[in-house]
Design brief:
alpha/beta; 314 residues; 18% strand; two-stranded antiparallel sheet; elongated; Rossmann fold
């Protein structure tokens, strides 16, 4: 396993101290791993520092500070083994760093949300009666993709058929594996189009042994059919490495949501995301001057979403 196997392109808040010393770090790391239950985060940060410093040092043609040391020797010296060190850097540090970012964004102040943006905690199926029928200009959402959640699509179609204004749109991200089941569901909406988000980094779908190069966005319209006034391209290129605030990986980026808002709604339109997650639709609506209501079952996301909305340009 090469020393440059792990490549970190994202900006982090880790500050590399000028007085970092190899031997001191090894001893500090040993102590941290002895108390990993209490100080696991600190251990991961120290490991990440060592990886960055020693990799940069090893890449120098001259003037190396640690000519006989590498990240591999560091892992051996702290008695975890190089494979374990790389695995922790690659797998666990991003999760830890994401958790830190989420906690930093959680809003604990009393600053009110913008008057046109709101987030409700609960199940959209149970809260539907609180929304006036035929009052929504656009439903934009990203439902979970696993088979166990397919029933949400049927409920989403019912919700959209009641709450959308005539000729307005339901636009929803979808995985590819269960499209056949989605299209067989009872649906009073009109299938309008399928859009395509192209990945630059293509994940492997284990259940099909397929390298997934794109994701579908399904577009449905509430009758009567009405053609879009402007021409919209159906292919969006998404940098899959620029993912945002989900539990163990990056979620959807804001830019495609902004594109979809501009394609299927107008300024000041009312947009609803019935499965708001970490609030990407709400952020996009704030950025593009749309009114937005997000509904999310997970209570832990509510303050996170509020924190994101209150941070400018987030």
């Amino acid at each position: 396993m090469s020393k440059d196997l792990v490549s970190f392109k994202e900006t982090t808040d880790i500050t590399i101290p000028k007085n970092w010393d190899y031997d001191s770090s090894v001893q500090r790391q040993k102590n941290l791993f002895k108390a990993v239950r209490e100080q696991g985060g600190k251990a991961l940060v120290e490991l990440r520092k060592a990886h960055q410093i020693l990799t940069e040092d090893a890449n120098k043609k001259k003037g190396r500070k640690y000519p006989n040391k590498t990240f591999e020797t560091y892992c051996e010296d702290i008695e975890i083994g190089r494979r374990t060190g790389y695995r922790w850097i690659e797998k666990y540090f991003p999760i830890y760093y994401l958790d830190v970012r989420q906690k930093a964004l959680v809003s604990d102040d009393t600053t009110p949300l913008p008057p046109n943006i709101d987030i409700w905690q609960g199940d959209f199926r149970e809260l539907a009666d609180k929304i006036e029928d035929e009052s929504i200009d656009l439903i934009l959402t990203d439902p979970p993709y696993a088979e166990e959640y397919l029933g949400l699509w049927q409920d989403l179609f019912v919700f959209a058929s009641k709450k959308l204004k005539p000729s307005s749109f339901l636009v929803a991200y979808s995985g590819l594996m269960y499209l056949d089941k989605i299209f067989k569901m009872k649906n009073e909406l009109i299938y309008y189009w399928m859009m395509n988000i192209e990945f630059t980094k293509k994940p492997l779908v284990m259940g099909r042994n397929m390298i997934n190069g794109w994701k579908s966005i399904l577009v449905f319209q509430k009758p009567p059919f009405k053609k879009l006034k402007k021409v919209v391209v159906d292919k969006i290129k998404l940098d899959y490495t620029e993912r945002e605030l989900h539990d163990k990986n990056w979620g959807q980026t804001v830019q495609p949501f902004e594109f979809l808002l501009e394609s299927f709604s107008k300024i000041n339109d009312k947009v609803v995301d019935p499965m708001a997650g970490t609030g990407t639709t709400l952020i996009a609506c704030r950025n593009k001057s749309r009114s937005c209501l997000g509904i999310e079952t997970e209570e832990k996301y509510i303050d996170l979403v509020k924190g994101r909305i209150k941070i400018k340009n987030r």
